[in-house]
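COURSE: Structural Biology Practicum
ASSIGNMENT: Worksheet 4, Part C
STUDENT ID: 0417
INSTRUCTIONS: Below are two proteins. For each, the amino acid sequence is given first, followed by its structure token string. Answer the questions at the end about the second protein only.

PROTEIN I
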Amino acid sequence: MNSTVLITGASGGIGEELARLFAAHGHDLVLVARSADKLQSLGGELARTHGIQSRVLTADLADPAAPPRLFDTLQVQGVAIDALVNNAGFGARGAYAEIAYDVEARMIQVNVAALAHLTRLFLPGMLARRNGKILNVASTAGYVPGPFMAVYYASKAFVLSFSEAIAEETQGSGVTVTALVPGPTETNFAATAGNQDTPLFRAGAVMSAAAVARVGFDGLMAGKRVAVAGFSNKLTVLSTRLAPRSMLAKITRKLNS
């Protein structure tokens, strides 16, 4: 029997590329996103190409009721999740005093609360079976303060810290937790966040979603706690350990301006 992987934010970008990798390696899929049409098309393609089963569950993770609803649906269907990929997330650029708070609240719900809730729902079953993997998509943003994207950067700091903590809690249990740390990536994220024309994306080393997904997949399978995508992003992470946080905030301000 194939193992089953649940991937949030699977309709495009890193989530879609991860779905393609898992399917190519014989894993059944549960694809979650808001767009039913895109999910159905992707799931059907991967099922035909790789001979795996693909389920599609539409959900808006900005709704606090979405995680338990997803979990309950799979429980009723008798589907055990062997690997959980918390990929869904979005950002918004602008001064914190100017961005509508309902946008920031939705971001916190999707990037932080839904990720934590889904982990809490599916982790006990993995622990009981002494087998499971969790991949949480963090960011190099999680290592620094993020002026003009304050909540997004803070949300990714949560993802990174949370993932490393749960990885330690589950050590020796048969369950591993991995934080994937991409930097600027060729997805719809920048257009949605409104920072596609900032120095961060204009001058930085932008990786393809497929390349980032491969780092995440390989890191998850190897049981790594943190998988940083790309050499330049590894240098970025290293540099954050050496520079004062006040300096990091000033640098990030320029990159997001």
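PROTEIN II
(use this one for the questions)
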Amino acid sequence: MRNWLLSLLLTASFSAFAQTSAAHLPAAPLPSSASLTSVTAVANPGSFQSQIAPPNQQQPLIDAATSTISITRTNAERLALKNNPRITASHLLALAAGQVTRETRSGELPQISAAITAEKAEDGSRIGAGALTDSRLYTHAGTGGSLSQLITDFGHTRDLVATNKLQQKAQDQTALATEQDVLLATDQAFYRLLNAQSLLDVAKATVAARGDVQSLTSALTKSALKSDLDLNVAAADLSQSQLMQLDAENAVASASAALAAVLATPADTLYHAVEDPADSPPPPPSLDSSAAINGSAQAQRPDLQALRFTAAADQKFATAQQLQHLPTISASAIGGITPVSPDGDFVPNWYAAGGVNLSLPLFTGFRIDAQAQEARLRQKAAEKQAQDLSDTIARDVRIAVLNAQTAFRRIAVADQFRQQTAQALALAQTRYKLGLSSIVELSQAQLQSTQAAVAAVNARYDYLLARRSLDYAQGQLAP
């Protein structure tokens, strides 16, 4: 009679557990280490396995007492744009490209210089060696200046300036492409962390649920209502769920470190990803809209625009190099005073002169032709690179649309899968309670329920990331 009452009491408690875990896995503390170690057999106490500390004595991967920083996707993107060194470096390179344009344009502006000379020499002597000159050396002191102004080089400097401007635009587009690369990396790290956190919650709930089943099976085994096989299977399921929890904890810690690296913060910073309630992406575009999306991407992708500017810059540079065959005409002037000079040699104490100079390269060892040909070859290479990137963008857009469509459809299928496995788990628990099935059937139902919960989590965050990847493929990724 006592055994019958005990069996009835255990059956009632198991029924209550089935009702609470049918719809979803409950959140409960981890089972004690006794429930795990009671069914773990150590073959050799002196082996390596015997040296491993029990679960309750091991240091957790994520200490619950460690403070974490809650962060949303929008805040993560803004912090990455502010701190990431890749973005800072690309902006500095763009500013440096602007200075190159100023350097080249300086050739069209007047060149003014000043000089002060004081000399003590043997009056009337000549320079004996080192140069072909007929000047004499005199003891004197003077100061003066010179001015040089380019009149025309028939467009050579003008095309060089145009080349540098196009290169500056290319660098600006490269900086924008770097920003979008960092934004995509931030989104990937954020959603990876968010997904890992959700999977950790599933793992903890699974451990709690299977711990309850193991405890119940142990009590039924002691009452001779279940066999040792049921207890061993329940203990194995509990160990499997604990392994799943360890993997989930590692995934959370790794994802937090990856996010910290993108945000340029210390690697040991622990972040807690928080989903923005307003972050509800619209349904994915239809497959028929791939052509329109590709057209938008071809016009907006900054990396493609950078290659096109580079090709145009190489074309201008080839023209500028070819114009070196033409003459260069410039004007120059010089003047100054000589307050100290030998008597009788310098009647006035000032000097001035001016003139026009024409320089024509007659033979440069084929240097100019080689430079022009080099620029033309670089132009063709840049055009081919732009064509290759254009084809890659068309492929990426098509794949991004397909991935978004698939991820969106997986959400509904995963939710349906979760509901079906919840019903199957409830039935399996009832059958196990009534003694109509073995622990194997219940274990299989629990496994499918866990897989369904994982699939539902993955489906949602895969779609959120697929939408951001589609925006990146279009060149429209922004905070």
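ANSWER KEY EXCERPT:
Q1: The beta strands are 69-71, 111-119, 125-126, 136-137, 140-152, 271-273, 328-340, 350-359.
Q2: Confidence is low (pLDDT under 50) at residues 1-53.
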